[in-house]
């Protein structure tokens, strides 16, 4: 009898605590909604008990909102299951024809399959100079000093469209709006070094780009802003364009200021840099450096690789995912979406990848209407995801053998392990937290259509999340 009474009292105490948390969350959300900054906005919150999975609190939890980069959680978890934590991208180097006395009588082939880390500075083995050394070493191993045919860069694994639909004009020329090709290079990003003027309103001057931007022209209209005003410069150079322009401001100062842009054609950039490398290493090429997508448009014959010289491997997916979530790299999300499509259907397109990801989550209990997405990174303002769906994704991840790698990749904000999201008028957070009393929570909060400072609305969202501490 005494034990029964104890159990009943324990259950009552736990119920009281849960109700207390729910009440406090409800009051905090009401306060947030009444704030002038969110007066015309929408707030959605869902909090669940991480152990039992039962809801602790929900408010507009089934309303689809723009999730910004918290949408990366959907792509990340699906990629772990559909591709595997140990999945590695491959870039094949090979040839057709024959090799005789240092001469390749045929074509050199480089077949890409979407590796977003090729030429990346984030790992020792993926850096540009290391990748180029491996390619040269493969040629030297077979004593190749001359190629009588072409250097063929095969980017056919992914669709010719590098960008998802719905990405906005202000984003796509900048580094965070980089497209995804079957041959990516240096994260499809370059740094634009600008020399600002001495006073506000002065013109600026382009000093250089690193890597050197190949075969493109940028007309510079960026002016000098106030000291300490930060990066307010934008680059407008969409995919496959050869002429672009810049607008906005960078702060006054004596030092050069750097903003980062997106390659308009990553395979072409790689091709130009490879050609420079071959010239430097005295590897003569009689033919041309060709890209499959261009040759296909011109209806040119494309020989098939016959023999392999070497394979370049990316880091495993769990390592790629670390940077995908920790630094919110949009390119990685778009590459993963296309890779899922390529591996599962043979068609590396964003549309097919999105379809497969939505089907994956539908098979794991999340209705498609709750994840109405059109890209892999959350950059499109047209994406719609519910906070309830995001919590279910996070709960699912807890049950998987690769969960530790996923969890460790999450950034820490406000003393909580969570992914953040930010696009125009939208802020979001989703993740895990263990309270002081040991209670474990899984949560998601999204605010759309707020006014004023993003920093201010974030502080007000933190005030809601602080109740889980």
Describe it.
With 469 residues, this protein is of the alpha/beta class. It folds into 3 domains: 25-85 and 318-468, DD-peptidase/beta-lactamase superfamily (Beta-lactamase); 90-160 and 266-314, D-tyrosyl-trna(Tyr) Deacylase, Chain: A (3-Layer(bba) Sandwich), CATH 3.50.80; 169-262, no CATH class. Helices cover 33% and strands 26% of the residues. It is built from 12 helices and 24 strands. The protein has helices at residues 2-34, 72-83, 128-141, 169-172, 266-280, 292-297, 317-326, 330-345, 350-362, 387-398, 403-409, 454-465; strands at residues 42-49, 55-59, 90-95, 98-100, 103-105, 108-112, 146-147, 151-154, 189-195, 205-210, 217-220, 223-225, 232-236, 243-251, 257-262, 284-285, 289-291, 307-313, 371-372, 384-385, 412-413, 416-423, 426-434, 440-448. A 6-stranded antiparallel β-sheet has the order 2-1-24-23-22-21, sandwiched between helices. The chain has a 5-stranded mixed β-sheet with strand order 17-8-6-3-18. β13 (232-236) and β14 (243-251) form a beta hairpin. α1 packs antiparallel against α12, α2 (72-83) runs parallel beside α8 (330-345) and α7 (317-326) packs antiparallel against α8. The protein is globular and about 85 Å long. The two termini are 35 Å apart.
CATH architecture of the largest domain: 3-Layer(aba) Sandwich
> In what range is the share of β-strand residues?
25-35%
Helical content band: 25-40%
Strands of the largest sheet, in order across it?
2-1-24-23-22-21
| Unreliable runs | none
**Rg from Cα:** 25 Å
Give the number of DSSP strands. 24
CATH C-level class of the largest domain is: Alpha Beta
Number of H- or I-type helical stretches:
12
Q: Let me know the CATH homologous superfamily of the largest domain.
A: DD-peptidase/beta-lactamase superfamily
Secondary-structure-derived class: alpha/beta
Indicate the overall shape: globular
Number of domains: 3
Largest sheet: 6 strands, antiparallel
Overall average pLDDT: 95
């Amino acid at each position: 009898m005494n034990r029964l009474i104890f159990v009943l009292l324990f259950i009552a105490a736990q119920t009281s605590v849960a109700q207390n948390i729910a009440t406090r969350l409800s009051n905090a959300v009401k306060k947030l909604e009444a704030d002038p900054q969110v007066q015309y906005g929408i707030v959605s919150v869902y909090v669940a008990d991480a152990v039992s999975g039962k809801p602790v609190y929900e408010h507009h939890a089934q309303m689809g909102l723009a999730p910004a980069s918290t949408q990366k959680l959907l792509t990340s978890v699906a990629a772990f299951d559909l591709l595997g934590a140990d999945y590695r991208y491959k870039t094949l180097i090979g040839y057709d024809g024959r090799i005789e006395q240092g001469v390749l009588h045929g074509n050199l082939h480089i077949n890409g399959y979407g590796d977003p880390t090729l030429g990346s500075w984030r790992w020792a083995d993926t850096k540009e100079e290391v990748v180029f050394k491996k390619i040269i070493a493969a040629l030297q191993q077979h004593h190749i000093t001359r190629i009588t045919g072409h250097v063929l860069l095969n980017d056919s694994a992914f669709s010719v469209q590098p960008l998802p639909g719905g990405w906005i004009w202000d984003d796509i020329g900048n580094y965070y709006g980089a497209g995804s090709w079957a041959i990516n290079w240096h994260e499809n990003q370059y740094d634009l070094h600008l020399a600002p003027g001495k006073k506000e309103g002065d013109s600026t001057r382009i000093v250089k780009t690193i890597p050197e931007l190949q075969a493109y022209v940028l007309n510079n209209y960026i002016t000098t802003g106030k000291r300490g005003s930060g990066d307010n410069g934008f680059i407008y150079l969409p995919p496959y364009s050869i002429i672009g322009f810049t607008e906005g401001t960078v702060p006054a100062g004596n030092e050069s200021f750097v903003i980062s842009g997106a390659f308009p054609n990553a395979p072409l950039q790689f091709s130009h840099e490879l050609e420079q490398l071959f010239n430097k290493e005295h590897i003569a090429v009689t033919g041309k450096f060709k890209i499959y997508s261009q040759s296909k448009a011109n209806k040119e014959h494309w020989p098939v690789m016959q023999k392999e010289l070497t394979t370049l491997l990316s880091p495993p997916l769990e390592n790629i995912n670390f940077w995908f979530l920790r630094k919110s790299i949009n390119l990685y999300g778009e590459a993963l979406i296309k890779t899922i499509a390529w591996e599962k259907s043979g068609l590396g397109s964003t549309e097919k990848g999105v379809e497969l990801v939505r089907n994956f989550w539908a098979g794991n209990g999340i209705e498609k209407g709750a994840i109405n997405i059109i890209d892999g990174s959350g950059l499109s303002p047209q994406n719609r995801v519910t906070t309830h769906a995001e919590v279910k994704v996070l709960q699912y991840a807890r049950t998987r053998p690769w969960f530790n790698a996923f969890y460790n990749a999450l950034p820490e904000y406000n003393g909580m392990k969570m992914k953040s999201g930010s696009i125009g008028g939208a802020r979001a957070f989703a993740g895990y937290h263990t309270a002081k009393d040991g209670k474990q929570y899984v949560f998601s909060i999204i605010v759309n259509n707020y006014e004023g400072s993003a920093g201010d609305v974030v502080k007000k969202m933190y005030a809601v999340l602080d109740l889980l501490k």
